[in-house]
Amino acid sequence: MAAILEATSGPRVLATSRTPLRVAGEQLWTVPPLSLPAEDGPASEVAESDAVRLAAAELGQSVRRSHHGT
Description:
Elements: H1 2-7, H2 50-68
């Protein structure tokens, strides 16, 4: 990544990483983790957690794309 950024003028890269890439011009945005249901919590709380809602939304989009061929 550093070589690409140094060899070209004006590139913009959006990269996700658990740790900083430590390249010149890097800007960091910390994204908090999604909420998870408690391991011993009631099943009714599972659907309310952010992580499960995101996974369900992604699965729904994937199913729709597979039915529409896109």
